[in-house]
Amino acid sequence: xxxxRVVVTRRPVAxxxxxxxxxxxxxxxxxxxxxxxxxxxxxxxxALSTVAMVVALLVGLPLLTAPGDWLWVTLALQPVWVAxxxxxxxxxxxxxxxx
Length: 99
Hints:
This protein is 77% helix and 0% strand. By secondary structure, it is an all-alpha fold.
């Protein structure tokens, strides 16, 4: 590396020409941006609901069990974490496929 930094502040003219030649315009970019924002918001809601379930388990299970049952709680939670991870992944992928 020569240590030189190049900052690009806008798309090159050739990109605009290519986009026009393909029939793309600024409205397509705005629609894509809106769709991306909606998808990100949907995935954030899904993630927050999963986090709420994890917190409920982390706080609730120790309160419900006797002090000597930590081994049971530790072993029982591992399949729950895997199940929550699989559910989270499926919900996020479903949100991406949904129009």
